Amino acid sequence: MAHRFTRIVNVLLVAALGVAPLAATSVASASPAPHDATPGSTIRLQGVVLAVTPTTFTVKLQRADMPSTPVVINLSPSTTYTLTQPTFSPSTSANLVVGVFVSVREYVAGSIASSIVIGGQQSISYGGTVTAVTSTSVTVLPPEAAGNTSVTPIVFTLDANTTYTFSGSTAPATIANLVVGAKVSVIENSPFQSAASVHIRAPKPIKLVGTVTAVTPTTVTVSGPFPTSTPVVVNLDTKTVYTTGDHGAVAATIANLVVGAKVFITEDATSLTAQSIVIQAPKPVRVAGTVTAVTATSVTVQGPDLSVKPVVVNLDANTIYSLGEHSPAAGTIANLVVGVTVHILENAVTSTAQTVEIEAPKPIKVVGTVTAVTASTVSVLVDGSTTPVVVNLDAKTVYTTVDHSSVAATVANLVVGAKVFITEVASSLTALTIMIQAPKPVRVTGTVTAVTATTVAVSVEGSVTPVVVNLTNATTYSLAGKTTGGATIAALVVGAKVQITETAATQTATAVMIGTGRH
502 and 444 in contact (C-beta within 8 Å)? Predict the structure, then answer.
């Protein structure tokens, strides 16, 4: 495929020949079409002189880098010669020398030149994309090379006289601006392919949209979506402009360029250096559930679906803690204890918590009967259970007694057999409050069958086995018919009728009323 090019035709030259201007030509056949014109007509040819004899001269009709059979044109005594420089003036065949650019009017019959305008070296304009640059040459690939491997680049010579300009700018340019990828228009001096001037149009910036995978002080690595899945490394310099927010409305710095951030980069196509970067911070991941473990640098959270493994979230000095649901109250890592419910926002890339909202676990309700009491615990048998629940006690535990009204109490009211309503902290199993309902006393009525210093056995109607009731120094004795006092344990004899009030849990008599027995 022949290279396309544009010849800049000197208007004055056209006027001197007296013919209509010719458009840029590209000769594809070995024998130029004009020689097939009607006999007796005239044609116009343009080209570079390759050889001269007293009666002929040879003209190459195309650029020196394009193959074509030269045209041999005859000279006659009637052939006229004109020089274009310094002004159009008559000349002779002496100026028809190798290397000059000529415009010839030729009689087709006999291929005789009727007139020759000698124009020196005619300039040719050539457009394309720079593929290589040295200090003395530039290689340009023409536009028609796209998808056509038969088109070869053209090498133009650069020298001290070559001038450089920018497209769309009056700013001066130099050979330093002539970079690979730039679009250029080269004005060359034919036939030597020497660039008289180079008009430079910088390559369009490259647009990249992707996710940051690595950052250094001088580069950022970005992965897809691209036509290729290979990450792209983009250079950074002091001129790179950083912004964040929608449409890059907020100024930022390289510090905002973090792994995981989505970026919109405009980079120089030649140096692959970012001109601007719009940064969209990675969206945080939400983690919610119950804390199952805590360390100084991490918290483990179990979500509501127990079939899913717990999530480990990193903690650092920048993690912010708050207390209560949607509460502004500040917290610390000390509030992050096993059993609490948390709502965490974590960095999607580093799995580090940005914020931790701590919701204390709901208190546990324990209702049952006291089976044992120590200075720091109470054991409660819950209805329907066979194993007592152990609840911790501390100085903050609040005690009340219940008999249709709440009365302040102490741990001393917490006795075996008492029914309790306990509210405890789910994480520490420590009682916040304990409402105590003292056990109702048991009535034992019957006949004494045996007495010791610490017990009395009573035969109860309907029972085969006597009921044994414990006696203590606190047990009080009275005689039937008297409201108080009047008796001691000595009055408690076999055969005596008794009515005993005892504590249900300990089966200890609190009061013994003695009647008259038969012997």
Answer: yes
